[in-house]
Design brief:
This protein is mainly beta. 7% of the residues lie in helices and 41% in strands. The chain is elongated.
């Protein structure tokens, strides 16, 4: 085979930078037969890449096994700088050179990759799913992807990803030995559902399994596969929960506040227990299949004179595998007025005045009266019932002597005609217990001051005769009038009068002669 000048120059330009010892192979001098190096090259050689996607070409491989001398092989592949090493599959040119870097002959090498993708690792969940998740998981590509994220593979092709709101169940990690040559791996999966019989379900709790087979295919059609087993089990009663608390008798107590009992207010999501599956979705007991059945039984009790209703509901779970009832839920549903009355107070402490006739105050015992006197609003969402009131007073006075100013004392002030009477001057707390028609109640207190805001009552003599002075040596026509002369019994409701003053009105015509 002859080589054109242009072809030879091209190959030499590729190989000359390489050290002369690269790829040298010494042929023993004692070879059995002689050969012509310029005609020994095999026209086309076929080789298989190793696990690292490499292959080293020797002179012997291309026909120089019986040639005496030292020769080396260079391959014009994707990386010709490493001489006789093939780096990627393909059909490549090769040439054999002597120690003087002369091209003796040339040919082609077909390098094939016959290794499929390599399974590097698996990222599969180690969690048993609920039996209610089977239909969602089966053949759903949204459930395939790294378990640490909510991202699944777009078409299950390695590389681009899309966001989902579904937690992934896992994915295997495959790599191709010739990945550096641009040979990517395409990943596909298929699911096979296997449902367990009742015996296995009862013994180990397994309800079904999905056998998910992943098949990785490289760019040359070579394949490798791995299987993931996704296990499903049936929940038991303790796996379910309510959003409402219960007590010793009921798993949950649910209340609907209204002024009339209306069963249409009952919401299914309130009165049916649920569990949360691996994907964050609520699974309610009344949607549970998995060889279970559910029976609901209600007993009703009217309350609040027929305006309210209590429902004692029993949820019975039937296991078709065992052919018997296996568990019960008891819940209490309340319909009607379940909210206590409300007491709204002023942001400041109100002041109540004493009465005009004595030094005590009165307090009304009705909601309307307390709103007027104290600014306190007492109301109910339906119908306000009775009020119970009592007063606590700060400090104590015994026989007119203050013996305590810091402690609070319960006081028994008289109540008559709908008012509390005799509340003394000072600081007090009105303890209010408000009830409604359904026996809901609230207790709160309102502080207030009792102060004397009543002015003294003045009684004056409206006709007073005064004698004027006519004593020799003194100014005549002068008279003196005191407050005591005018007072006819002025008084105050809380204490003695501290002082009294008299103001005289003088006609304008008398001002010039007014003395003092």
């Amino acid at each position: 085979m002859k080589m054109t000048f242009t072809h030879m120059i091209t190959i030499l330009c590729r190989i000359l930078p390489v050290g002369v010892l690269l790829g040298l192979f010494l042929i023993p001098q004692g070879a059995k037969a002689q050969c012509d190096p310029r005609t020994s090259c095999i026209n086309q050689v076929q080789v298989t890449m190793d696990a690292n996607c490499k292959f080293t070409v020797t002179p012997n491989l291309v026909g120089f096994g019986n040639c005496v001398g030292t020769y080396r092989v260079v391959v014009s592949d994707s990386n010709p700088s490493n001489g006789n090493i093939i780096d990627c599959p393909g059909l490549w040119d090769y040439a054999v050179l002597n120690t003087a870097n002369e091209v003796l002959c040339w040919g082609k090498i077909l390098a094939e990759d016959k290794s499929g993708p390599i399974l590097m690792s698996t990222d599969f969940i180690n969690t048993t799913l609920w039996c209610t998740d089977i239909d969602f998981v089966l053949n759903n590509p949204k459930t395939v992807g790294p378990t640490a994220t909510n991202q699944s593979l777009n078409g299950l092709i390695s590389g681009p990803i899309i966001d989902t709101d579904v937690k992934n169940l896992g994915i295997p990690n495959f790599a191709d030995n010739c990945k550096s040559c641009g040979c990517n791996v395409t990943l596909k999966f298929s699911d096979r559902l296997e449902t367990a019989n009742c015996t296995e379900t009862i013994i180990n709790g397994v309800y079904a399994r999905i056998y998910r087979v992943f098949v990785a295919t490289d760019c040359r059609g070579m394949t490798q596969s791995v299987e993931q087993v996704i296990t499903f089990r049936r929940p038991v009663l303790n796996d379910f929960k309510f959003d409402f608390a219960g007590d010793a008798n009921y798993k949950a107590i649910i209340s609907y506040d209204a002024c009339a009992a209306n069963k249409s207010q009952i919401r299914r999501i309130d009165v049916v227990p649920y569990l949360t599956n691996y994907f964050g979705k609520k699974i309610y007991l009344d949607t549970l299949a998995c060889n279970y059945g559910l029976n609901v039984n209600d007993i009703e009790f009217p309350t609040c004179n027929g305006t309210g209703l209590k429902i004692e509901r029993t949820l019975k779970l039937f296991d078709w595998c065992l052919n018997r009832e296996v568990a019960q839920y008891k819940i209490l549903i309340k319909l009607g007025d379940t909210s206590p009355p409300r007491i709204l107070k002023l942001s400041r402490i109100p002041v109540v005045s004493t009465g005009p006739s004595d030094c005590t105050a009165i307090l009304p015992t009705t909601a309307a009266g307390l709103r007027t006197i104290l600014g306190t609003t007492i109301s109910d969402n339906c119908n306000l019932g009775t009020l119970s009131l009592r007063v606590r007073t700060k400090g104590r006075i015994v026989s007119g002597i203050i013996v305590d100013t810091t402690n609070w004392y319960n006081m028994n002030y008289p109540v008559s005609n709908g008012v509390i009477t005799g509340v003394t001057v000072g600081r007090h707390r009105l303890i209010i217990t408000a009830n409604d028609g359904c026996y809901n109640s609230v207790v709160d207190s309102v502080e207030f001051f009792v102060k004397d805001l009543i002015a003294p009552v003045m009684k004056c003599d409206d006709k007073l005769r005064v004698s004027l002075s006519n004593t020799a040596g003194l100014q005549t026509g002068y008279g003196k009038v005191t407050a005591q002369d005018i007072d006819e019994g002025s008084w105050d409701n809380c204490s003695r009068l501290r002082w009294m003053r008299v103001r005289r009105v003088i006609p304008a015509g008398c001002e010039a002669t007014f003395v003092g």
